[in-house]
Amino acid sequence: MTAHLFKGCAAVICDPHSVLRDVDLLVEGPKIAAIGKGLVAPTGAEVIDARGWFLYPGLVNTHHHFFQTFVRNRADLDWTKLSVIEWLDLIYPIFSRLTEDCFYHSSLTAMAELAKHGCTTAFDHQYNYPRHAGKRLVDRQFEAAAKIGLRFHAGRGGNTLPKSQGSTIPDEMLESTDEFIADCARLIDTYHDSAPFSMAQVVVSPCQPVNCYRETFVESAALARDKGVFLHTHVGEGESQVIAARHGMRTVDYLEQIGFAGPDTFYAHCWELTDTELRQLAASGTGVAHCPEPVYLVGAEVTDVPAMAAFGVRLGLGCDGSASSDNSNLMHCIHSGYMLQCLVASRRAHPVPEPRDFLGYATAGGAALLGRSDIGRLAPGMAADLFAIDTRRMDYVGTRHDPASLIAKVGIAMPTDLTMVNGRIVWAKGEFPGLDEAQMAAEAEAVLATINA
Ligand SMILES: [Zn+2]
Question: Across the chain, what does the average pLDDT equal?
Fold first, then answer.
């Protein structure tokens, strides 16, 4: 069994409310064996000099669209300057040209950036199925996750409603409900592992209620309950009025009536929910993946995170896809999410959450949304998912008072010094061990060039 002893950590942030100073942390196999002073390395263990290091629980990203990584930083697609319709008309022709290789390399690109910045578990919502690209897109994502070494929860998304019936999705990207459900079942049977320390899970994730038939959501919930997997979709992005006109009730009621709600379900965004709807989510145990960076870009309404927390809604944090957030850096989102709530705090009745709460959303909060009790905090018996920041740099002078709030308050501009997933070092000393980053980047650029040609 491989073992690693982190010797002399300046701080181990077990969770946002428990910080141990000047301790060692021992990893044996995939899990944490001990945290304490004066730990002795077992025979054959790698001893890592962790003096000056803060060790954090690995971050859990709860919403993303990896395939969008190939449309970052494009002025012609800047949705702050376009109407939603103009933006959709420009971006979907690009999305519809993506090939199977594009899905693989964009996923590899996003996951590499996530890992460099402390993310150890990623959920991705892959809803783009151009007909020519085939059905093996999530399969290739599992391949990419294994290459980087990331723990991966694949959201098998999809759209079924034609544009002629009110959807915004081009017809060449649609599937039938039967096609969608059959492929979800295939992926669950092939990849889903519910055992402790599982590295691969599948989440049934129809894209959003406005772009699917009702039966797609009904059958998704039935399949997920039958197979014992989780459910995910987009909610409260401005569609509640459309759903109300179409189905006679807003999105939260509509999904609750279908049974697409509960402790095994989490929604992305939820910008526009009323207090009553937030209380409904809290009562049903439905979670929310809050993605702060698209909120900056849309600018219409700031998600009321303190209200959600006060009502007891379970919260995780997400980068979101790169069509509406140009990075895959969850550490950055901890900082931007906190700053965003500070901006609007004075306009609201409730207090701003503590900065450390945002670390909590990005760790234990996200783990709970994905149904994981083996990740999200550092303790003996938990999976060894963690990252290290060497605070012996000028960047951190004067910041070491409160390690649990460091990321939210100060913001971390650089990659971690080390990221470990399931007891394996996936990023250290500026490199992905065993991988050639320059070559991976060049290969991804070459594939990207094929769709921009
Ligand atoms: Zn999304």
Answer: 95
Yes or no: say if 286 and 265 are a contact pair by the CB < 8 Å rule.
yes
Q: Report the 10 Å Cβ neighbour count for 443.
A: 16
CA of 44 to the centre of ligand 1 (A): 45
CATH number of 59-369: 3.20.20.140
Tell me whether the CATH fold assigned to 3-57+374-428 matches the one assigned to 59-369. no
Residue from 187, 206, 105 nearest 138 by CA: 187
Give the predicted TM-score (pTM) of the model: 0.97
CA of 110 from ligand 1 middle (Å) equals 14
Residue type, 303: T
pLDDT in tens, 108-157: 999 999 999 999 999 999 999 999 999 999 999 999 999 999 999 999 99
User: pLDDT tens digits for 69-100?
Assistant: 988 888 888 877 887 778 888 889 899 999 99
Q: Which fold has domain 3-57+374-428?
A: Urease, subunit C; domain 1 (2.30.40)
Query: What are the residue boundaries of the structural domains of the chain, listed by start?
Result: 3-57+374-428, 59-369
> DSSP string spanning 40-78?
PPPTTPEEEE-TTEEEEEPEEE----GGGGGGTT-GGG-
Using alpha carbons, select from 385, 309, 395, 440 the residue that is nearest to residue 55.
385
Phi/psi of residue 424, nearest 5 degrees: -115, 130
Evaluated on CA atoms 57, 270, 178, 172, the torsion sign reads: negative
Q: Dump pLDDT digits (tens) for 317-375.
A: 999 998 778 899 999 999 999 999 998 887 777 777 899 999 999 999 999 999 999 99
Q: Ligand 1 mean position to 65 CA, how many Å?
A: 6
d(CA 272, ligand 1 centre) in Å: 15
- Ligand 1 centre to CA of 222 (Å) is 23
Residues 7-33: b if buried by 16+ CB within 10 A, e if exposed: bbbbbbbbbbeebbeebbbbbbebbbb
